[in-house]
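Lecture 7, part B: from sequences to assemblies.

Below are the input chains for today's worked example.
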Amino acid sequence: MTASKYMTLEEAISTFVLDGSSLALGLAQETLIPFAAGWEIMRQSRRDLTLIGPISDILFDQMIGAGCVRWVRSAWVGNVITGSGYNFRRAVESGTLEIEDYSNLSLAMALQAGALGVPFLPTYTALGSDLFQTNPSLNKIVCPFTGQVLTAVAALNPDVAIVHVQRSDEQGNAHAWGNLGMTREACLAAEQVILTCEEIVPAEVISSDPNRVVVPGFRVVAVVQAPWGAYPSPVPGYYNRDHQAFLEYQEASLTPESFASWLESRVVAPKDYDSYLELIGKTRLAELVPKVSAPSAVVDFGY
Amino acid sequence: MLVHSERYTAAELMVTAAANEIVNGEVVFVGMRLPLLGFQLAKSTHAPHAIGIFELGIVRDKPAPEPILTMGDLPNLYHAQWLTDTMGLMGMLQRGMVDVSFIGGAQVDRFGNLNTSYIGPVRQPQTRLPGSGGACDLASLAKRHIIVMPHQKRRFVHKVDYITSPGFGKGRGWREAQGLPRGGPAAVITTLGVMHFDPSTFEMVLTSIHPGVTVEEVQANTGWALRVAPDITQTPEPSDEQLAILRKNDLEGYWTGV
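Predicted structure of the full complex, as structure tokens:
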């Protein structure tokens, strides 16, 4: 029996996320974004982080605004339903943030190369684009078999991948379902994996359906129970996306001053993540719970 | 508003034009915002057998059962044909299995090169935009892609500041010379009209104008001498059926309202 990796959000972040760490997060793009973990990182005022992720919705923008971030390696930073991420814009335009521009495919390939333990992978994407100008991790290569020119994408091995899932046991064997983006590649590319989950369940629940395991427990260093930990992004089976929250954030992040007051009231003032959720309101959260149930058919792993 | 109709908005006309670009049975890589509605509309009308691919890991062969605001909304997962990873879907795109995709842009030039990254020099940008997302992949690898964006002089520029998503580069032969396997922009749908690309020069040509819009108006909002097709037409207006479906899918008019 392995020791439990179960810990509080505060412990997990203070133990495994250090100043200067490179973090992969927001890997399923619009879904399962680990907002609670990001919230705790902002509370602990981590500095000089590198954020790695395809489309982070507003999570990267929040962490940039909170002063946690020095580098971003990403395909898109903004607010999916409104457009610009204002903290991101301000930071790039004032030169306080370094960005390496990927596309979604090239970022997935960088993580896959990291997962495979090879220095790069080839692709046809981005040829002719200016991504090469603003991302030294993309280069041209000639195929040794065909002589064709391809894009070589350098491997990425983040220090930590932070992944929100529906359920996990205390050893970090976890089930995730829905669209997963590049979650699996990132979990295998990262040196360490922190899981936040809606529910902690007995090990038997996970082992009854091993095909649904997103990452094996032996790759996980911390398991945190964080109900609503991806709010306001959606979690299949648990809650819908809170569109209103993304509209409110657009307003709140418009100026440095309005963002500072958002940060104070939403991140600094609440004593813990539950208190933050109380600010959102129980009624509002209840409205996000799916109204149509759609369970899958049972599968049999018998022998 | 440049479309003078009491029956529909410019965005509704644009979504309808986007939907009309989808052929029944095609594999469609569906982008954010207006294209999301365009796919729902095409699936519900002339293209019931179209397959929709959403880059975050969703494949659908039927429309979502309820209106969605964005592709990650849970109704878009309900009884999907496949829920998976980005890599598998982008792999199909790279192999040439995707017929058409839709992308938006902040700046476009006469050869359909798109910029969604930097306005001004990259080291000291005047404006930093969100970036590629999947757009560069779709423009690089789909058999064809459709650009959907507002038509303004500051957006339709002689030369884009940065190529996020490659179009036809500098014209004939450019994509092949870069090593791109196929594709290129097939149409540009804007608030004023629809443009296609000349098959020999690969330059943008105005092929239809929206009702109430003049060629002069389009020209005045374009940063170069835009070529006009000799047989220019008027963009078809959305039918009552199309409008009813659009409004059912865009409940509060978030994307297509006034």
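Note for the exam: Chain A has a mean pLDDT of 97. Keep this in mind when comparing with the next example.
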